[in-house]
Here is the input.
Amino acid sequence: MALSEQEILSGLAEIVNTVTEVPVESVEPGKTFTDDLEIDSLDMMQIVVDAEERFGVRIPDDEVKNLKTVGDAISYIQTAATAA
Amino acid sequence: MTTAETPGEAPRGTSRPTISVAEGSRFSRILSVGSYRPERVVTNEEICQFIDSSDEWIRSRSGISTRRFAAADESIADMAEIAGRVAIERAGLLGADIDAVILASITYPFQTPSAAAVVADRLGTTPAAAFDVSAACAGFCYGVSLASDMIRGGSARNVLVIGVEKNSDFINPADRSAAFLFADGAGAVVVGPSDRPSIAPTVWGSDGSAWELIRSQNSWIEYRDDPEAGWPYMIMEGQSVFRWAVWQMSPVAAKAIDAAGISPADLTAFIPHQANGRIIDAMAKQLKLPGTVTIARDITDSGNTSAASVPLAMDRLLTDHPEASGGLALLIGFGAGLAYAAQVVELP
Here is the structure.
């Protein structure tokens, strides 16, 4: 079943909030994980693992480096989930 | 039988005499566990003198509050000897009863001879067979597998398996990805014959194609030829290792449960390599372990002691939960070389 952008955003926001305590409403597509949300590499790794589990996708290590913004992650997960 | 299997007579189809083969105990068991924790407690504040971090950051990302570092003059052999002696005493044995010593470590600073031979002699086990195992954080579980098969194959009756590390000699205190994780210590078990199945099949393997993920940053030869290249500190690609551990090791642990012919609910304890609190949490979640299974979390005040972490955590768990003795525990070690090993064992 295809996931909507909104579903992925709210799921991702919940994960980010659980791992880092960044408020759910701060997680917006245009924001960067590193600079805007101030998420470090260890937390990012936990977020990726949690997102993989929640959305049933795999995000290879090489791809994680390309996920600069929340929007990048949403697009990747949406494409990967559709392919699956 | 007077044909193929009778020593001295010619096996079928040959003119040579038949040779004798060893026969071991049908089953093997961990008879006892012992450990040694160095005296010096190292706080996160102390670690943060060399890296830009904080106590809160380290606790939340790794689950580590404190760890132990060995003294400058305290060696791998010193720590292994103490843990080994405790294990032998608790098994109700003497050094002379041990006929093989297997020592797992990646921080013994002598190329040769093995630390196992030195420790075997100090413990009065000479002339026990003795050798070191280099399988990083999987080393102890590799050792348990070897010991069990040696006993069942008739190569040994009682085997001392030691996991020991002095990581503080090989971690760069300024390495932000490793300095707060690794620590020192030793743990040991005696594996001996058993009248019942007490060590299930080991599920193990390696993946050398990913050797670069956790390794010495350079070789001794490179250091000799160019001291500027720096001490052969251990370095790690934390993100890749974390994801490998979470996604690849949970299925290995599940296979070990299957290989034992039990279900997760039959376990009394889960004693994974104490790599990182988040990895332990993720594995427990993926294995869907029921709340009745006690999960070892020695990492909180021991850090990641590589090959020593599983026996240290086992000793701690049995001290805190003596009622777990005799129950089944799932052990799993995983690390550099991307070596891994998991087995279900009866707790001593």
Summary: The domain at 203-346 of chain B is CATH 3.40.47.10 (Peroxisomal Thiolase; Chain A, domain 1). The first helix of chain B runs from residue 44 to 47.
